[in-house]
Design brief:
The protein is mainly alpha-helical. The chain has two domains: about 1-55, Arc Repressor Mutant, subunit A, CATH 1.10.10.60; about 60-205, Tetracycline Repressor, domain 2 (Orthogonal Bundle). Helices cover about 70% and strands about 0% of the residues. It contains nine helices and no strands. Helix 1 crosses helix 4 (about 60-85), helix 5 runs antiparallel to helix 9 (about 185-200) and helix 7 packs across helix 8. The protein is elongated. About 35% of the residues are buried.
Length: about 210
């Protein structure tokens, strides 16, 4: 082996170690100062890598934020799925709220970061790998809500998918709208719950209202 050539295994470990340092630096700086208060140079300095090296892992600050938030989003969905499954037998409203609670709390942990993250997922380049991963997580959340709604005998599979899309839109608006910025998580979640209740109610009218579902 020629001098200066690093074995593939060692090279991959070195790359992963740099990625972890960059992720840790971005996570800490975004948490402390918000995405608008941090520069890529500061992240590179904290991670002890050259700015050019940082750009090999993420070409913009927005991509760095998405990298960080994707991990939090995935963990929040895992917690929500477990919580929703633990409410089995309680209809659909409470399981759906249990599923989305940790997601809402995750997005509002640092409101600016959460708002920017959702904005980037919706309006950014969907072909960019980190956005693809984030959109896949959003799809997983929507799919989880769909699955819960199909427990309701009055909601068919097609309607469940449509309602899940509506509910995710409610979450998006409720966690990003400026009017909600200074409300508590509990107040925002209560408002979301009321909106979901109203969204599902038409499926239980005309004598079909079943209190175990709503």
């Amino acid at each position: 082996m020629g001098r200066g050539h690093m074995p593939t295994g060692r090279r991959e470990r070195a790359k992963e170690a740099k990625r972890e340092r960059i992720m840790t630096a971005a996570r800490e700086l975004f948490a402390d100062h918000g995405v608008s208060g941090v520069t890529t140079q500061q992240i590179a300095h904290r991670a002890d890598v050259a700015i050019g090296t940082l750009y090999l892992y993420a070409s913009t600050k927005a991509e760095l934020l998405i990298m960080v938030q994707n991990e939090k989003f995935a963990a929040a969905i895992d917690v929500g799925v477990a919580a929703a499954n633990a409410t089995d037998g309680q209809g659909v409203l409470e399981p759906v709220v249990a599923l989305i609670r940790p997601v809402v709390e995750c997005l509002r942990e640092h409101v600016e970061n959460g708002r920017t993250y959702l904005h980037e997922l919706v309006f950014g380049d969907p072909a960019e790998p980190y956005r693809q991963a984030g959109l896949a997580l959003a799809g997983r959340l929507e799919g989880g809500i769909t699955g819960l709604l199909t427990r309701d005998e009055d909601i068919g599979a097609t309607d469940a998918a449509t309602l899940a899309r509506v509910i995710t839109a409610i979450i998006h608006i409720s966690t990003t709208a400026t009017v909600h910025l200074y409300r508590s998580d509990e107040a925002v979640l209560a408002d979301i719950r009321d909106q979901i209740h109203a969204t599902l109610a038409p499926h239980h009218r005309a004598g079909r209202l079943n209190p175990r579902f709503i």
